[in-house]
Amino acid sequence: MSELNNDRYLRALLRQDVDTTPVWMMRQAGRYLPEYKATRAQAGDFMSLCRNAELACEVTLQPLRRYPLDAAILFSDILTVPDAMGLGLYFEQGEGPRFERPLRSMADVQALPVPDPEDELGYVMNAVRTIRRELKGQVPLIGFSGSPWTLATYMVEGGSSKAFTKIKQMMYAEPAALHLLLDKLADSVILYLNAQIRAGAQSVMVFDTWGGVLTPRDYLEFSLRYMHKIVDGLIREHDGRRVPVTLFTKNGGQWLEQIAATGCDAVGLDWTTDISDAKRRIGDKVALQGNMDPSLLYAAPARIREEVATILAGFGKGNGHVFNLGHGIHQDVDPEHAGVFVDAVHELSRPYHGG
Question: Where, by residue number, does substrate bind (predicted)?
């Protein structure tokens, strides 16, 4: 078993004792850091940065040099899988991700390949191996993927969407096509995350960014069903250690019990769910990750500390809390404020542990 200097994050996910609540931030390697902007400029564009193992490693490690974070997260993008399926991913300036060949029919879905993670996605595995080597056991490395539903929204809409009309049209008018797509995506994500685990990821997370746009019935049928399939297909023991899996649905607070029942180790919370409520509902089954509103990092340091204290008090004593933002850190946040946040979690959480 590879030794870790700091395994707080993994211990918390397994609801074991820790000395202080572990903390990391979604999108902690990113545009709020000047050093990230410099590396991205050096790479030329976003996907070139993802595809260069040394540069992807560099930006993964940048936030760890600034802050005493308890985990590193692989620098990549959720759209690597649809890109590897041949849809022609590109990024419009100011528009976000787009696909040249969005899916429109059952025939389009039937033609999709399931990518080989060590071939078409080999650059991601190279990045994982490089990062694990350079971390030197400092903290665990998190691997991740988008959820099948979330990936499908981009693949059918052709990019980001506000109303999700194209995918909902497929869902209601051609459900068999969407189920086939989601099934292929679940198979692809299982292969992809298991390859990340074999390459060195010590925990994995599934981001269901758009599950919250569905009706309760449709969420269970078109999103959670396929995340459950992924959980069932993952390597859960590797290198002599349990590999915890976290599921995160943005705006998914109404489905916490059903998410916890998939067999995942942890449920991610956004800021619209009260953590004390989540703990009461599912805290005896899974760990909880979250859940400060990222916009609070615009506040004065005293207000950031106050919010950290409120969330810690909401969770209360006991194990099984990984502190995080309720979604990714915003790109115009002052890096100093992120430091205040991380330090506050470690300092203010100590009384909740031990004794």
Answer: 27-31, 77, 154, 209, 327
